[in-house]
Design brief:
InterPro entries: BOBF_sf, CarO-like. By secondary structure, the protein is of the alpha+beta class. It has a single domain, classed as Bacterial OB-fold (OB fold (Dihydrolipoamide Acetyltransferase, E2P), Beta Barrel). Helix content is 33%, strand content 35%. The protein has a 5-stranded mixed barrel.
Length: 122
């Protein structure tokens, strides 16, 4: 009986803690980002996990799913999952509208975790 109670409490703790760290759902990020159309320079003033929309150009593949993004005010790293990258058919040099979440870090520069991206005409 003790094993059952212990197992149940461990499972409950894991489930509750994982949902607490999951962050916002993508649809909430998209809704918030629609209200926060910003440029790279403005990102530094925003809080972690703020939904934003940026428009500019992907200028470099940094590594893995990290890309350099540039607009008229500066440069920032975008984290774009491979499935998003391939679905849109992106390549370095493309002009894009990226919707994502500000991701601040203690020991590295702020970046944007992209949840939606589209090519735009320049």
């Amino acid at each position: 009986m003790r094993k059952l109670i212990f197992s149940t409490s461990v499972v409950a703790t894991v489930v509750l803690s994982s949902s607490a760290f999951a962050g916002k759902d993508d649809h909430l990020i998209v809704q918030e980002a629609a209200k926060n159309v910003v440029n790279v320079q403005q990102i530094t003033k925003l809080k972690d996990e703020t939904g934003v929309t940026l428009t500019g150009q992907i200028t470099k593949h940094i590594k893995s799913d990290h890309y350099e993004f540039k607009d008229t005010t500066g440069v920032i790293s975008l984290e774009i999952d491979d499935d998003l990258w391939r679905a849109v058919g992106l390549k370095v040099g493309d002009h894009v509208r990226a919707v994502g979440e500000v991701d601040t870090h203690r020991y590295k520069p702020t970046d944007i975790e992209v949840v939606k991206i589209e090519k735009i005409q320049h």
